[in-house]
Every structure is written in structure tokens, then in C-alpha cells.
Amino acid sequence: MASGGPEIEQLIQLLARLPGLGPRSARRAVLHLIKKKESLMIPLSAALDRAVLAVKTCEVCGNVDTTSPCGICADPRRTESGMLIVVEDVSDLWALERAGVGAVRYHVLGGVLSPLDGVGPDDISIASLVERAPTFKEVVLAVNATVEGQTTAHYITDRLTESDTKITRLAHGVPVGGELDYLDEGTLSQALRARTQI
Amino acid sequence: MASGGPEIEQLIQLLARLPGLGPRSARRAVLHLIKKKESLMIPLSAALDRAVLAVKTCEVCGNVDTTSPCGICADPRRTESGMLIVVEDVSDLWALERAGVGAVRYHVLGGVLSPLDGVGPDDISIASLVERAPTFKEVVLAVNATVEGQTTAHYITDRLTESDTKITRLAHGVPVGGELDYLDEGTLSQALRARTQI
Ligand SMILES: [Zn+2]
Ligand SMILES: [Zn+2]
User: Fold this and answer.
1) d(C-alpha A47, C-alpha B94), whole Å
2) For A24-77, how does the pLDDT look when each residue is reduced to its tens digit (9 = 90+)?
3) Which of A38, B26, B62, B167 could disulfide-link B16, Cβ–Cβ 3.0 to 4.6 Å?
4) Which residues contact A55 (CB under 8 A, 6 or more apart)?
């Protein structure tokens, strides 16, 4: 039942679709926005407008940024000759960046192989990875420690055997079944330092 | 560390200020928005723009709506001669509306008396309540079952003793220390039906 006009009701329904918010917390969020109209609602509205216009997916690595190539791909201190870290999702890339893993580049797969869900090699960014990989000394498969993540890592390893690039994975230390994005930054840094060759 | 340009970073920081979201869930929310740019991010941006322009606080009852008087105050089926439900916050009004309590009107106090926090009778909408109350048959004090809520109810009862209006409160059934907005709708309906005279 609408208690605040169609504009408010629609805002609640859209916010309720964000991960971590449901209908009840979306209503609380909207009331909070309305109470903090000048200091939060108007700035958020403006920030969202700007982000809609500015946000791009990097054509090189799959990161999201306001430029393409993204800031990481365009950074000359992160050379092609170094380390390429392969992640499932942009959130994993951001988690590794927060952990301060150094002058690396990334490749965002945009998912994992999952035959049961009909996700095959052509549905995620594997072809472009096979193309990029030989220009790097080392490819680190930083996929989640899930069955699908490990299946994806095996498939990528098979596809890259012809290149001279060293292929590694994150050290055990990533909890089995765990997702990178939920790990603390120290664990992530350590897992990268202790990475092992596949 | 910013991984997605200043526009994205700013959006994360603003979303993190919403109740129920922290920095981590705000990042997830922003990534979700970016992935669903056409179906969610753009509609949310437009809805927020519209809401910023449209949202008003009702000058009669304190509800938020896109008109003032609000839809409830302007609804002729909810007559002044009936029941006025006094709530602390707009979220409580919305919770009662969702519970379908009937053709009632509301008065939003916008807080509770709290001497320790320096909140006195002039800081919440008590004067306008004292003015409105005599035009209703019954005033239901639907404040939270907290110390401050009950203090506020006592204070309002004292201020309204001169009027002939019947003053009631919600039946016990509201858990002690509990907040209306978190109750299920059946409990709220029952508590209103079994309301008792103060
Ligand atoms: Zn990039
Ligand atoms: Zn109103």
C-alpha cells in the first residue's frame, strides 16, 4: 500500500532491488533520504546522474571505470610484461586493489563456467584472456575457491598450456567455498604472496 | 583506494550513509547498479530526481508525500471526526497504513521527548497536536513502547485532559522496547483493535 505518492513508492521499489536491501530496509532508506534531503538525497541524486553518464566497462580488462581503457590498464607503471590477475568479478578486482597487491593488471572473466546453469567458455571473457595472456610473465588465477571457480581455473590452464606464461593460483588461505570479496585485506595480500604454480 | 574513478567512489560513499548499508555493501550495490545500468541504475537515477522535486512534508500531519496536505489528510473518507493516530515517525505511519488500520488520520510527532538529549515539547510537533486533537473523537497514542515513548504519551495525555477527546494507547502486544516499524502487520492490527483508554 502506497503511503507517500507514486514517486516515493517507485523509489522504494527500485532501492529494494539492491543487494543487501529488502522492501523494509528500502523504505527506511527512502525515509532517511527524505529527512536528509539537502545533505544526502540531492547529492546522491547528482552523483547517480554523473555516474550514469560516466561509467564505462573497460574494453581491455572488463573493469568498470569512467574511462576505457580503465585507469589500471592505462597506468604505465603496471606493465604488460608483469603479472595479470584473473578474477571472476569486478568486486574481486576492487578487493585486490584495496589489499594493495602492487603494480599488476587484471582480467575480469565476468562469471565462471557452470554447465548446469548453461554458462560455457563463450559466455565469459576467456577468448580475450587467451589473447592477452602471452604478453604477461605470469597469470594468477584468482578465482573463488568454489567448484565452478576451480573448474574455470582448470579450463583456463588447459587453454594457456601452449604459451610460455607461468600460471599460478592464489595460495590456500582462501577458505574453501569462500568468496574473495568477503576476505580481509591481510589474508588476500598473504594469499597472493604465497601463490603456487599450477 | 579508488578503483573506479571519482564518480563511482563518491556514489559508494553516499550510498554507504544509508541505514542498513555499510562501505562494503555500498560497493556491492554500486557494482550491481553498474551491471544493471539500463534496467536499474538509470531508472533509479530518474526516480531519485523526480522524488527530490516532488517530496513534501505535509503541513497538517507531518507525513511525507508529493502533496501537502498529504493524500491521507486530503482523503474525505478519513474524516476529522474520527480517529487520530499519533506516531513518532513517518515510518510508523507507513507501517500502520500497511497494516490496513482503516479510515484514520495521523499526527507525526517527529521524535519523542528526551530530556537527556535535550528534546523538549517545543522540539517535536506537540503544539499542533494539541490544536488538532479536539476535532477528533479519539486520539490513539501509537508511540513506541520505550521509556521516551511512554514519557511522551504521558506528557501528551496531560496536555489533552481539558478536551473531551478520548485518549487511548495501543494494546499491550507491542513488545516492551520494541519499535513499531519492525512488527508484523497482524500484531499491529491486533494492538490497535485492543487499544485501551488512558
Ligand atoms: Zn582495464
Ligand atoms: Zn498529512
Assistant:
1) 28
2) 899 999 999 998 999 999 999 999 999 999 999 999 999 999 999 999 999 999
3) B26
4) A64, A65, A66, B4, B5, B7, B8, B34, B37
The model carries a pTM of 0.75
Whether residues B47 and A89 touch (CB distance < 8 A) is answered with no
**Does A37 reach chain B within 8 Å, measured CB to CB?**
yes
pLDDT in tens, A125-159: 999 999 999 999 999 999 987 889 989 999 999 99
Cross-chain residue pair A63–B4, CB shorter than 8 Å: yes
**Beta carbons of A47 and B14 less than 8 Å apart:** yes
Neighbours of A76 (CB within 10 A): 6
Residues with CB under 5 A from ligand 2 (ion): B 58, 60-61, 63, 70, 73
Of the candidates A18, A29, A51, the beta carbon closest to that of B32 is on A18
State the ipTM, two decimals.
Answer: 0.76
- Ligand nearest to C-alpha B90: 2
Domains of chain B: 6-54 (1.10.8.420), 79-169 (3.40.1360.10)
Task: Answer yes or no: are the C-beta atoms of B59 and B108 closer than 8 Å.
Answer: no
Single-letter code of the amino acid located at B180: L
Neighboring chain A residues of B33 at a CB cutoff of 8 Å: 18, 48, 51
Residue of chain B with shortest Cα separation from A96? B3
